[in-house]
């Protein structure tokens, strides 16, 4: 099992937003959110990143797919 760095939901949200940032996505009219899972699935992360796929600009979902694995392997959210 992979040991993940335990962080807060707020920290992880800001870190993902920073990595997902792109000048043409500023002033965006779509939502994103980091959600905590009630339980892990097969040793995976205890969170997932959501966004309204029908509203994100071209390239957004692909950019997340490109960096997703690193985030999921590296971070876990502190569970209170």
Poorly predicted runs: none
What pattern of helices and strands is seen along the backbone? EHEEHE
Task: Compute the CA-based radius of gyration.
Answer: 13 Å
Give the CA-based shape: elongated
Strand line-up of the largest beta sheet: 1-4
How many beta-strand elements?
Answer: 4
Describe the structure.
With 80 residues, the protein is of the alpha+beta class. 34% of the residues lie in helices and 20% in strands. The protein has two helices and four strands; from the N terminus they run E-H-E-E-H-E. It has helices spanning 9-20, 60-74, and strands at 5-7, 32-36, 47-51, 75-77. The strands form two sheets. Strands 1-4 form a two-stranded parallel sheet. A two-stranded antiparallel sheet has the order 2-3. The longest helix is centred in the C-terminal third of the chain and has 15 residues, at 60-74. The radius of gyration is 13 Å and the shape is elongated. The two termini are 21 Å apart. The mean pLDDT is 86.
